[in-house]
Specification:
This protein is mainly α. It has 17 helices and no strands.
Amino acid sequence: MELYYSLSILIVFAAVFSYLNGRFLKLPSTIGVMLIAMIASIVLVITGSIFPKTFLAFSRLLESIDFTEILMGAMLNFLLFAGAIHIHLSDLREQRTPIVVFSTLSVVLSTLIVGALFYLLLPLVYEKVPFIYCLLFGALISPTDPVAVLGILKTAKVSRSLETKVAGESLFNDGVAVVVFAVLLQVAQNRELQTPEHEISLVSVSWLLVKEAAGGLLGGLSIGWLVSRAMQKIDDYKIAVLLTLAAVMGGYLLARAIHISGPLMMVAAGLVIGNYGKQTAMSETTKDYLEKFWELLDEILNAILFLFIGFELLLIENLPSYWLVGLLGIVVVLLSRFLSIWIPTKVLPFKRKFSASTIKLLVWGGLRGGVSIALALSVEHGPHKNFILAVTYIVVVFSIVVQGLTIGKVAGHLTDS
C-alpha cells in the first residue's frame, strides 16, 4: 500500500500542476510541470522552519521512492515504446548512419571529453575530484534523454530529417550509455574498496556491450513480430492494447532475467509494432485507439517524471553552493556535445555533408533529462555522490528549461541541409 499512496500523491500533484500550467503558464507540459514543482520545492524549503512536519513528511516521501528503479526499470520502458511506436521505419532507414554513429561513437567521445575537461578545470572552481568520477559524470550526462527530446520535438518546428536524427539518436543511445556508466561505476567502487573483484578488461566490456545491445535489439524484434502476428488473427482494439502492454511489461521481465538491454528491446519492439504491425494487422479503428492510448499514457508518465525532477531539488544537500560548478558543467557538456557531433561529421564519410546550422541544432537539441538524474542517484553514497547529483541536476534543469524552450526559435533561424 505504501507504493500506492506514494504514486497517488505524485499523480494528484501531476494533475494539479498540469492544470496550473495549462491554465496560466501555457508552457510545454513537461517543462511547465517541472518548473511548478521546483517553485513548490523552493516554497517548502523556505517555509520549512514554519511547518517543519510538512517539510519532513514530504522529504521522506520522496526519499522512500526509488526513482532510479522506477524510471530505469519501469517508466523508461513504457516511454521508449510509446515514442518508438510513432516513428516511421522509412525515416530511420534514411538516417541510419548518423543515428548509429551519434548513438554509439558520440556517446563514448562525449564521456571522454567531459571527463577530461572536468578533471582539468574543476580545481579552478571547486576541489580536485578523481578522474574516474569525472568520467562517471561524463557517462551519465552524455546520452540525450529520449523522454525530454521526444516531448520537446513535438512542439518544435524542425524538418522531418533533422527530427529523425535527434529522436533516433536519443532512442538508441541509452543502451551504450548505461553500459559505459555501469563499467565506470564498477571501476570507481572497486577503487574505493581497493578490491580486484570483477576485474574490468577490454574483452569483458566489449562482450557486455554486444550482449546488452544485440540481445536487446534481437529480443525486441522478436517480441514485436510475435505481437504483430497475434494481432493479425483478431482485430480488436482492446486486445491490441493489452498485447502491447504485455509486450512492454513482459519484455522488461525477460530483459532483466537474461541481462540484456531493456531500453533497446522496447525501442525495437515499438518500431516493429508501429510499422509492420500497423500495416498488416490493424484496422483504422484499432490503429486509432492504440495510438491514442499510448499518447495518453506517454503524457501521464511524462508529467509524473518531470514532476519528480522538479521535486528532486529537496533531496540535494546544499545545492546553492554548487552553482559555480554547475555553470562549469553546463559549458563543458555543451562543448563536449558539439565536439562529439562535429568530429564524426568531419572524419566519417556520411552520404550527406552536415551544414553548420544542422550541427548547431543537433547540439542544442541534445537535451538531458530523467535518465541522467536516475544514473546519478544510482551512485553509491560516498564523498562525491552529492557533488555528482548536484551538477547533474543543474545541467538537466538548464537543458530542459533553456534549451527546451528555445529550440523552436533556434530551429526557426537555421536551415537544415
